[in-house]
Amino acid sequence: MSGALRVGIVSQARMTSTRLPGKVLLRAGADSLLGWHLRRLRQTGLPVFLATTTNAADDVLAAFGAAHGLPVTRGDEHDVLGRFLLCARQHDLEAVVRVTSDCPLIAAELITEGVARYRAAADPRLYLSNVLQRTYPRGFDFEVFSRELLEEAARRATLPAEREHVTPYINQNRSGTVRLAHLTRATDASRYRLTVDTPEDFTLARALLADYNAGRLDCEEIIALLAAHPKLVALNAEVEQKKI
Hints:
Number of domains: 1
CATH class: Alpha Beta
Keywords: Nucleotidyltransferase, Transferase
Low-confidence stretches: none
Strand content: 15-25%
Shape: globular
Helix content: 25-40%
CATH superfamily: Spore Coat Polysaccharide Biosynthesis Protein SpsA, Chain A
Number of helices: 10
Largest sheet: 7 strands, mixed
Number of strands: 9
Distance between the termini: 32 Å
Radius of gyration: 17 Å
Organism: Hymenobacter nivis
CATH topology: Spore Coat Polysaccharide Biosynthesis Protein SpsA, Chain A
Mean pLDDT: 96
Protein name: Acylneuraminate cytidylyltransferase
Structural class: alpha/beta
GO molecular function: nucleotidyltransferase activity
CATH architecture: Alpha-Beta Complex
Strand order of the largest sheet: 5-4-1-6-8-7-9
């Protein structure tokens, strides 16, 4: 692995979310949730790709990609792992940053730091993330891993949950040869929830983006904003994360 390693961000999206259908194209202030997500990812300077399904319901996401210069890979709705591999192959990626499109306030600087650490390690068996040891708000999640690990997972992962959630085969170290690394924050801020999976989540995201200009704030500024406004945090404090 070299300094010229081709790393791309792949974001997964679909319109048929069970708890909030069509959520990624809901408007929050000046843009859609997916629009804000894309803006923030592009701050990394890395190429960004969208992985969606072949379902007719997701034609609108392919159209979004075409309108925003965002390359789109389409595949099976339930085999998200297969979609990621197809995208990596189509664009000759040597390493992938996995994110999900329901994170409109995702932090570019965390991804940049994570990718820098990943490149410096020069280890194709490395998996680096901020999700296994969670100290950042849910909604800043990212994972970095090699095409080699992705190919291996696609060959060997057989459980439906492993195919749907992309990385369990890798980050559970099913092969026994993966090295895990963690990007953590000195003070735990994992109690905050910035992902959008329910109407309550959307109410918070819309308030942050439309009323508090959060789309222009970095990770630490957003955490400080939440700490200063407990009434905002209360908007989705009762939401339970879906279990894998």
